[in-house]
């Protein structure tokens, strides 16, 4: 049961719950639970029964799949203010298709899927809100398919930098990272050693500089030249980047975390 007024306020402002009435929200919170995870701790594993969905209050989680060869591939990084696993309610999927692991210290709220579904059956406004969110996620998935369809690892990394940078001056930029570089490498389908080698090569060539939590683009013209692909010479779409530098709605909540 959730009783913390700040967490309750965060839940109520989320689009999945904002259309619920006071009585419905109270009933939902009565079935909800607060969960705290340490960095690298798993919330659930691929194949576990999918009876609940989650809202991230603070921290980051990675959703990943493990191949038959034992290799982990990061499918998505879930950030503060975002929900995950709610789509399984509608597809009636019995088990989680991915594992969920904390990237940093995390605070989550867990919701009962069946209880939420029962409320939706009598609340069309909440249903419309969910459809809007699914539409946004579909556009994000299309952007990621475009990025990951670039076959060359260096081109994927360069395109990522171009799409996520904040321009500084005429010929410089900066990419703020809120996830470890090993997680970013997995999201881009690049082996860690290859990612490290590509980064070092660009540092040596004077294209970028590395600092804690950021990649500084020292020569934007060289970065475009290095990309050497048509997308680099067009306006770069940044509608839904793989990383986020702004604060999510729930970050204002004062909960201790690393």
Layout of SSEs?
Elements: H1 5-13, H2 22-30, E1 33-37, E2 42-44, E3 52-58, E4 61-66, E5 72-78, E6 83-84, H3 87-91, E7 99-102, E8 106-112, H4 113-120, H5 124-148, H6 153-164, E9 166-168, E10 172-176, H7 181-187, H8 192-204, E11 208-211, E12 214-217, H9 220-227
Antiparallel strand pairs: 1-8, 2-7, 3-6, 3-8, 4-5, 4-7, 9-10, 10-12, 11-12
Helix pairs in contact: 6-9
Number of domains: 2
The tally of helices reads 9
CATH superfamily of the largest domain: Jelly Rolls
The assigned CATH architecture of the largest domain is Sandwich
SSE string: HHEEEEEEHEEHHHEEHHEEH
**How far apart are the first and last residues' alpha carbons, in Å?**
25 Å
Average predicted confidence as pLDDT: 81
Estimated radius of gyration: 20 Å
Into which percentage range does the β-strand content fall?
15-25%
**Structural class assignment:** alpha+beta
Instruction: Give the overall form.
Output: elongated
Fraction of residues in H or I helices: 25-40%
Major β-sheet annotation: 4 strands, antiparallel
CATH topology name of the largest domain: Jelly Rolls
Pfam family, one: HTH_Crp_2
Keywords: DNA-binding, Transcription, Transcription regulation
Domain Cyclic nucleotide-binding: 16-125
Protein name: Transcriptional regulator, Crp/Fnr family
